[in-house]
Amino acid sequence: MNTRRLLLATFGLLVAAATPVWAQTFPDKPVKVVMPYPAGTGPDAVMRYVGERLSKTWGQPLLVDNKPGGNGWIGLDAVKRSAPDGYTFLMIDQAIMSLHPHLYKKMPVNTGKDFEAVAPMYSTNYFVTVAPNSKWKSFTDLVNDAKTRGKPLTYGSSGVGGQLHIGGALTEAAAGIPMTHVPYKDIAQLYVDISEGNVDFAFATAATAGPLLKAGKVKFLAYAAPKRNPRYPDVPTVAEAGGPADLQVSTWMALFAPAGVPAAVKSKVNADVTRIISAPETQEFLANIGFSAWPGSAKDLADTMARDGAGYSEFVKRFKLSLD
Question: Are strands 31-35 and 153-157 parallel, antiparallel or unpaired?
């Protein structure tokens, strides 16, 4: 073997030997997870729950960095610019990763190239939420009223291009009723206005609106899912309530990393997150706030993101939607 081949072989052995050791020592400093959501929201609660358990596993703090605003792009851009060393991650939802690329011609990031899928965490569907004293007793009542009243229904959302906005747009298209979108910067204020009847309705997860329902501040007309939520068995699905059979509004949340993150780190983080998400106590925690645990591989997440993106592409083309 000549000198060049000997050096190459030696280098390959060193890399092969060093990689497992390096993976075993990760992390040796605090890890940060950027979230484009305010503190106190459902995603924030889940990330802090999982983060506390990751911190114990790793012996290093996991820091949650809330960066709301800008359609979620502020957080995405911050992670894109971070070093792909495994110490900065992004917790993000389906709409931003799979839908936004089809709604906007210009984004500060390329969700398919600037990030790598790491670990899915949970999924959830949304409730149709109205004022507690609303005259509507069912989703059919809402649709029929919208068709006969002299002005469009109003629906609120947490911002343009978000899942609540898309849910409203889907409802408008599927039910064939005129509606006006009212975006809010403050999600809490949206549900205050729902409660007071200032906005006709909004979609909401159980994590966000469940406590308001128990407090008598909102009412759930229907659940935009294939089957009822076991925590709210008295709330019918949209189809059961007389609405369009295929009207489903859902999302998922997952961890991503900047493109180029070491495979060994990605594998370790996925294994640790999957173990925590799969634990019975975590599944119970998620179920109690209306979420479904989604443990899975990085490939599961990447494939789901691509499949959802293809579906959203058809949806956007069909209804000629654009937010630029």
Answer: unpaired
Q: What is the pLDDT of residues 83-135, one digit of tens each?
A: 999 999 999 999 899 989 998 888 889 999 999 999 999 999 999 999 999 99
Distance set, CA 321 to CA 101, 123, 173, 180, 184 (Å): 12, 25, 11, 15, 20
Domains and CATH numbers, the chain: 3-124+251-319 (3.40.190.150), 125-224 (3.40.190.10)
C-alpha distance from residue 227 to each of 239, 243, 248, 257, 259 (Å): 9, 14, 10, 33, 37
Q: Which of 292, 323, 298, 256 is nearest to 99 (CA)?
A: 323
Written as six digits, the tokens of 161 are 């291009």
Q: What are phi and psi of 23, to 5 degrees?
A: -65, -35
Give me the amino acid identity at 137: K
Which amino acid, residue 17? A
Residue for token pair 């549900």: 191
| Stated pTM of the model | 0.82
Distant-in-sequence contacts of 295-303, Cβ < 8 A, 24+ apart: 295/120, 296/119, 296/120, 297/270, 298/116, 298/117, 298/118, 298/119, 298/266, 298/267, 298/270, 299/117, 300/120, 301/117, 301/118, 301/119, 301/120, 301/254, 302/117
For residues 84 and 302, the answer to whether their CB atoms sit within 8 Å is: no
CA distance 58 to 32: 13
